[in-house]
From TrEMBL:
Protein name: RanBP2-type domain-containing protein
Keyword set, alphabetical order: Metal-binding, Zinc, Zinc-finger
Molecular functions (GO terms): zinc ion binding
Composition bias, Basic residues: 28-39
Region of interest (Disordered), residue spans: 1-52
Residues in RanBP2-type domain copies: 171-190
């Protein structure tokens, strides 16, 4: 007992023991950062494939400014410089501009999406009139790309490459006398349909 008659307290077993360090909270999960080095992905150099001309090189050099555009430019450069066989040539032509759908259609759809504030929050900072103007222009581009019947020209390369002598011939519009691809549903100039002609029964 202590001199004052009280019972000394038992020593605490945790004295001198350091508290366990707290585990820091995990940082919030973020989307991975996409890195891309322009011009890094290129096909093997083939002496049989000539280099790109200055006009194409200049266009590819200008096409950039974001990771996605840099990747797109590299993909197009790869297609242009890759050594293709006949089958791959036909496939690339159709997928780029002749099939349904094709890359041109895809780009037109993305243009319309980027021009609509409903799918691109950045445009919501603009006034209503500005939003409507951008949406109208980009949607018109997508519509005109389809109406121009551009894919009809490239789709006809497939039977030519395959040597199909029975491929249908071009048709002449009854209204404006313009020549159109066999797969065109309407005239590329006046937009009349061949079945609407006066001599069609």
């Amino acid at each position: 007992m202590s001199p004052d008659g009280s019972r000394p307290s038992a020593p605490r077993r945790d004295r001198g023991r350091q508290a366990a360090p707290r585990t820091p909270a995990a940082p919030p999960r973020r989307h991975p950062v996409i890195t891309h080095r322009p011009g890094h992905q290129t096909p093997p150099v083939d002496p049989a494939v000539p280099p790109l001309d200055d006009e194409l090189e200049d266009m590819l050099a200008v096409l950039g400014g974001s990771v996605g555009l840099d990747m797109l430019a590299d993909a197009l450069r790869y297609i242009a410089l890759e050594r293709h066989d006949v089958k791959a040539t036909k496939t690339n032509l159709l997928c780029l501009a002749g099939a349904e759908p094709n890359v041109v259609d895809l780009i037109a759809g993305i243009v319309a999406r980027l021009g609509d504030a409903a799918s691109n929050p950045a445009l919501r900072e603009l006034g209503d009139a500005q939003q409507a103007g951008v949406r109208e222009l980009t949607s018109d581009y997508a519509r005109l790309t389809d109406e121009a019947q551009l894919k009809a020209l490239i789709s006809e390369t497939a039977p030519v490459i395959d040597g199909d002598e029975t491929a249908p011939a071009n048709w002449v519009c009854w209204f404006c006398a313009a020549e159109n691809s066999p797969s065109a549903r309407t005239c590329g100039f006046c937009h009349h349909r061949p079945e609407d002609g006066p001599n069609t029964t």
